[in-house]
Amino acid sequence: MNLALLALASLAAAQTAAVPCATGIHMLVARGSTELPGLGRIGVVAGNVSLLIPGSTVAAVNYPATFEQYTISEATGAAMFAKMVGDYAAACPGAKIALLGYSQGGQAVMDALCGNSEAGFTASADLVAGYRSSVVAAVTFGDPSHTLNAPWNVGTSNNTGIFPRQNFTSCEPYTDMIRGWCDTGDVYCDRGNNTKTHGSYFANYTLDAAEFIVERYNASLATTLPETPAPSSTSASIPPPTGTSTPPTTSSAPPASTSSTAASSGARGPGVNPTGVSLLVASASVILTSCLLPMVLGMS
């Protein structure tokens, strides 16, 4: 019970923190179609990340999330993502931001980053170049704009979604930091006929998504670490202390859908101690699924 309360308090504090700039990662979260205003079900991923990265904050993207006038609703979500990224990056120099979206919210994530190239939607621009360095991770579940053979695809899908992206060239600067889960049978991202698949990502991939965000956050810290000055030519060469190693390089290849990227690669930056991460995330997932979602998101 104490651990459950800790998880609940962690997410609640992240959402209502008085300090505007996170010392960890700042997560922008868009719920799926028809979910009540707030974080929605994908908030469970943000909750896990908040437990693993101290000082993290979470904000819900306020948009309609309706089936009616879907194109307007989704475009509003994408525009809100872009605005929130810009506002936060301007207020918090050096900010680390992650974008999370489920279903329609996932399409809004991708359109905010890459611009809209889906048929039937009004074309929109990709994220302002000046803010690209602030976004370190983007995660989607069941994105209707899922496109076959995109380099960030994970999951079991072999089809495109109902609103496939016509051009993802503008997404290329973000390839390493995007993961989009879509499974075979999903009626929206895979054009399938299994209605249960669209809601199965939280049980199957919450751990993978949370660990991916943590990995990308750590990698972003590693790239900003100050370099040690080279010894002068007149001084004696001093060997590095035992155990010193070069920060790991994160692979751009998407992880296998059946295993976590962070767990399989073993590469983590200096921001989070990897010891016991899988156990902590697994515990947090159970807690957040059984406790956080009913209490925080108002769902049973």
Automatic annotation (TrEMBL):
Annotated region (Disordered), positions in chain: 224-270
Lineage: Eukaryota, Fungi, Dikarya, Ascomycota, Pezizomycotina
SUPFAM superfamilies recorded: alpha/beta-Hydrolases
Positions of transmembrane segments: 277-297
Provenance organism: Lasiosphaeria hispida
Xref: InterPro entries: AB_hydrolase_fold, Cutinase/axe
Residue stretches of biased makeup (Low complexity): 224-267
Signal sequence annotation: 1-18
An MF annotation (GO) of this entry: carboxylic ester hydrolase activity
Keywords tagged on the record: Disulfide bond, Hydrolase, Membrane, Signal, Transmembrane, Transmembrane helix
Pfam families hit by this protein: Cutinase
Protein name: Cutinase-domain-containing protein
